[in-house]
Amino acid sequence: MLKELARFKGFSAKNLPKEEPFAPGHRACQGCGEVLALRLALKALGMNVIAVSATGCMEIISSPFPYTSWRVPWIHIAFENAAAVASGVEAALKALKRKGRFPKNRRVDVVAFAGDGGTADIGLQALSGALERGHDFVYICLDNEAYMNTGVQRSSCTPYGAMTTTSPPGSRSFGQMTWKKNLPAIAAAHGIPYVATATPAFFLDLMNKVKKAALVEGPAYVHIYAPCPTGWGTKGEDSIRLAKLAVETRIFPLYEVIEGKYYITRKVTKPKPVEEYLKLQRRFRHLTEDHIRQIQERVDAEYERLLKLAECL
Amino acid sequence: MGKRIAKEVSIAIAEAVKQCRVDVIAAYPITPQTHIVEHLSELVANGELDAEYITVESEHSAISACLGSVATGARTFTSTSSQGLALMHEILFIAPALRLPVVMVVANRALSAPISIWNDHGDIMAERDIGWIQTFAENGQEAVDLVYHAFRVAEDRRVMFPVIVNIDGFTLSHMIEPIELPDQEQVDQYLPPFKPRYRLDPRKPISMGPVGIPEIYTEAKKAQDEAFKNAYRVIVKAWDEFEKIFGRRYRPVETYRMEDAEVALLIMGSLAETAMTAVDRLREAGKKVGLVRIRLWRPFPLRDFVRAVKGVRVLGVIDRALSPGATGGPVGVEVRSALYQVPGRPRVVNFVAGLGGRDVTVEDFEEMADKAFFYMKKKPKEPYEMIGVKE
After folding, report:
1. Chain B interface, mutation test: which of A58, A72, A96, most B Cβ atoms within 10 Å?
2. CA-CA 20 to 30 A from A173: which of A153, A167, A302, B135?
């Protein structure tokens, strides 16, 4: 275990930070899992934070001038470069602290937020560069599995079979034809100290992981699974249920990769069938039993692989 | 006073950046800018310059990191060329709109295709409308001096705009010239520490770069435009101040042998020195020719320019970039537009020359001046003409 994490006891339901760095009154859709994840992540980080946002839902809904939902310093530059901008913020803090132009002992966490499009697709290069260079920052991907604020187009994080406006089912298509890109594995492959997956359904787990990510020295990556009622064709009140089901069906396993070692943080011994998760969402309604079987097989195989990764250590 | 010593211009620029006490440098290697950032890396590695050097994975990330850094309150520098500048393009608009005063040296180079590493102004002319203050250096000494000026202007609280110093790739960047680097005390006297008006600081949180809804976008842009135009006075004053401390005088527009000139050539960048020789030769032959050089390209020095070409009958504008299908090269179009409202304006004839590193010789300038004399009586058929094409 990393020395920075040794003293962190974890948040508990009775012991949550009182501050709300993300103010209420934003413009997210009803039942948005992403904004919930964002709020929890910031709550875990506290007020001594500089936040960088990529273009995406969370930037749009939180900052229509003259309003802002950010009670911490915040900057948005473009869609694909949150990691690069955060690199600059981190380097500047380092230089200014060294030169005595910023209080040396004051801890400021640098955090970057981006959606799955801004992370897995257009932003992957900037993210990879920043992780490789070892900047001390937290990168949080809020994954709602498509380009949502432009009108639900597929991203490389869109799951197999899902319907989006650019992966529509038709006579020659059954929706998204590729499997979801494994971003946490890509992040972990950079050999960074901390990688984790989380979902707002398990909020203490999410907050603890984000806090740990901030505590470790060097780059940390947290992949947060965030249901999107608008994009997925689901009921707003089902978001947390779906986020929970994704874990219980093993579609989205919860784990940490600490210094390259995998730890499953919520082992699912009696998984629910994936169908239970899929049938609640309009984006999967065109799928045949054969497709669902394929998805089940893939999910099982991936989970086995993950178990082995965790076991062998 | 500093000593004049022979130095490669890129190295001298890096030394000047060091004297400006930068905090953060983020850059990606691209020819012919590389010597600048290589030398800066050395200075950081040797502990001669106390700065963070971010070895980014692309120019896009270089400029992105620079904006993050300058927004946090650190004096920030980068440098690029050609394709690298083009890769930065998207982010270049964001810097002035957020009033983030980063300084960049662009070693001007042609754009693909065909791929060319040699000098012209095709890269920077594609970045004409990004809202950065832009200057063009004529020689090594000026390149260095414009770096001090760039930081001073960019970080002035009345300005807060990013600045590009253009230097011709290879023909300036790789030349060894006698250059006088001032003493550190002089630079310190000229360039106060960076005290940003706003910065990312948890003690005083602000939101930078929010969504501009239609109700405010126009107003935001108007505010940006007004502030940019107002920067002009600060730019000129900063040169006045420069003269007081360093003894060298710079103006937005410079003229050479323009007294009683009937024909004037107009150029930006290092070729001006070749053009001067041509002007001297033509003057010796009794022809009334002068030279106008624009040092400050953005904001465009409209009044100074109009004053400079007063009384001229034909203005031969030499562009170092091609704008296919347009009514001229970028400088030609700009200058024609600037003169349109001027009574008794000179006729503008536009030449495109020196693309992709093609030499433009004294004889070429003489030829262009002769053409300008010819067009005094006759209107040119085409809005611009390419010079030095082998047919």
Report:
1. A96
2. A302
